[in-house]
Amino acid sequence: MANILDRFNKDVIGSKGGISDYSSKISSKGDFSRLDDLNVILSSWNNILLTPTRTYNWDAEYGCDLFKMIFEPCDNLTSEKIKDEIITKIQRYDDRATITDIQIVYLTNRKGFNLSIFVNYKGEESNFNLTIDETLFSIYMEAVD
Predict the structure, then answer these.
(1) What range does the domain containing 50 cover?
(2) Which of 31, 72, 114, 143 has the CA that lies 20 to 30 A from 108?
(3) Could you tell me how many helices (H) and strands (E) the chain has, helices first?
(4) In angstroms, what is the C-alpha Rg of the chain?
(5) CATH code, domain with 39
(6) pLDDT digits (tens, 9 = 90+) for 39-57
(7) Is residue 120 part of a domain?
(8) Count of structural domains, the chain
């Protein structure tokens, strides 16, 4: 069985020498959107950071507890806790790329913060943004109940 999977991974057009995956977003052709290289990693990181720990059925430790820091004070200690949580979880679950910087901007009109995570993968640099706010917290709390 692994032989068939290896052959598929090697023979899919455009997959030689790189990583690829499919997103649940539907393309204009009606297919799942294909992601390549760094976009695959960023999608994985997004899933890790938005999944609360103890909610994934097969691995209770999978995920991140950023949502618990929404109501913390907007100070350097909280910023360091957020950065530590991100770095620890990313290094544990998907270390294919390197985090070069994390910028945190606290929201002024509601509880929460915006994250800008800067990434380097094989010389290619990019970043992605994530908003963790009270809306997300209420969704998590409803799911746990």
Answers:
(1) 19-144
(2) 143
(3) 4, 5
(4) 17
(5) 3.10.450.40
(6) 788 888 988 999 888 887 7
(7) yes
(8) 1
